[in-house]
Specification:
By secondary structure, the chain is of the alpha/beta class. The chain has two domains: 12-254, no CATH class; 271-361 and 371-414, no CATH class. Helix content is 43%, strand content 26%. It is built from twelve helices and twelve strands. The strands form three sheets. The chain has a five-stranded parallel beta sheet, sandwiched between helices. A hairpin with a 2-residue loop joins strand 11 (379-401) and strand 12. It is elongated and about 135 Å long.
């Protein structure tokens, strides 16, 4: 899916630095999964390195129950990344004001409709109980919905930097901006400082801000975050935020699998003598297919001639390591036992004999008179030592104790020749 990405960076290098930090955050969370924990909200990781914030315009576009698929998708990916979703207090109050106004407008329409209806029917207006405490009830409804959606409201600024805000307004420093009727941006500026305050107080170094109006997509705003030692990524829609998290998680998951494979390969190499002995004693092969090969395999190996003798067979190295994450690890006395499959390359030294054509030596033209068997092809037998590389696959279990691999159990060797 293609989408428009907007961010507070001056060049691609700045953006790459942000993504690297975001990747580190998600790697930590994936490590939890590989230790046997589900990818769900975990208190020790929440509000530490990554947070997601809503601006007013994006929050307004959600239905009041926050139950649409777009938001639920964001929740899912945020949970996987271990990130909390936050609403600044100013955004919350603006939402309360918006819905309260809409509710009061509907009440006024009901009054007008009631008056019109009584005029049409020439009767007294219908008596009904009008809702009271509208703003309070709206506030309770939104708060309940946010709690249900696990979206937290962050408190307003403890100490509003009025002097700084006044200077920003006078200089039209973003998110302040000049419009026909004057200068706007006070609410956005309060949101800006609220997010900075919240990130610093909770040791959050990276954040995603979902805002669709572009008021935060300014170099002045980016510089303010950078001056405070923070990184912010601004995305225009909730869908973009979900896609960014998903793409990053996919990349980090692949990197983490590669990392685990290398760790296991290092452990297996430390037990290579044991593995080599197991392979040599347990592997059963079809002699011709395994050593000589055939068809395309032989052609690709550039093998020719006739193998006269097998001189030596040497297991060479651990190659690919494979996990099946759909198979759960076993817990035995605080030890984690995990199935693993890996391949072992094998070098086979052979003596090969082949017939080679002998090249003619130049002769004088006058010497050709009386020459017989001109078309006879001269060959000679030639022998040389060659090394053929094959591989086998081993199924095993490895035991992990406190982040260190300790035991290896070998089950069987499989060949595909």
């Amino acid at each position: 899916m293609k989408f428009r990405l907007r961010y507070f960076v001056r060049d691609l290098s700045e953006f790459e630095l942000f993504l690297n930090a975001l990747n580190d955050r998600i790697i930590n969370q994936f490590n939890l999964q590989y230790q046997g924990n589900a990818l769900t909200n975990n208190s020790q990781y929440q509000s530490k390195n990554l947070a997601i914030y809503f601006d007013t315009n994006t929050f307004w576009n959600l239905d009041i129950e926050m139950s649409n698929d777009v938001f639920l998708d964001l929740q899912r990916w945020a949970n996987m990344a271990g990130a909390n979703i936050f609403i600044p207090k100013m955004v919350f109050e603006e939402r309360v004001h918006q819905i309260t106004k809409s509710a009061l407008d509907e009440i006024e329409k009901m009054r007008e409709s009631n008056q019109k209806l009584s005029g049409y029917l020439r009767q007294e207006p219908t008596v009904y109980e009008e809702p009271n405490n509208v703003e309070e009830r709206v506030r309770e409804t939104i708060t309940e919905t946010l709690n249900k959606a696990n979206v937290k409201i962050i408190s307003s600024l403890k100490n509003i930097p009025f002097d700084t805000i006044v200077k920003m307004a006078l200089k039209r420093t973003a998110p302040f901006k000049q419009v026909k009727k004057g200068v706007t941006g006070f609410n956005d500026t309060v949101i800006l400082f609220t997010i900075i305050q919240h990130m610093k107080e909770n040791t959050i170094s990276n954040a995603i801000l979902i805002s669709s109006d572009g008021d935060f997509d300014k170099n002045d705003v980016y510089k303010r975050f950078k001056d405070n030692g923070l990184k912010i990524l601004v995305l225009a829609t909730i869908t973009e935020a979900s896609e960014t998290l998903k793409t990053t998680i996919d990349k980090i998951e692949k990197a983490e699998i590669e990392k685990r494979s290398e760790e296991v390969k290092t452990f297996l190499n430390s037990r290579f003598n044991e593995i080599s002995d197991f392979v040599l004693k347990r592997a059963k092969v079809l002699k011709k297919q395994f050593i000589v090969g055939g068809g395309l395999m032989r052609a690709l190996a550039k093998e020719s001639g006739i193998i006269q003798e097998v001189l030596a067979i040497r297991p060479k190295a651990i190659e690919g390591v494979f996990f099946d994450d759909n198979v759960s690890s076993k817990k035995i006395n605080e030890k984690e036992v995990k199935p693993v499959t890996f391949s072992v390359s094998i070098d086979i030294d052979v003596m090969v004999r082949e017939n080679r054509f002998l090249l003619e030596a130049p002769v004088l033209l006058s010497s050709l008179e009386g020459e017989r068997d001109v078309e006879r092809i001269t060959t000679e037998n030639f022998e040389e030592k060659r090394t053929i590389t094959r591989s086998v696959t081993v199924e095993a279990e490895i035991t992990k104790v406190e982040e260190h691999y300790t035991d290896l159990t070998l089950f069987r060797v499989m060949t595909y020749y």
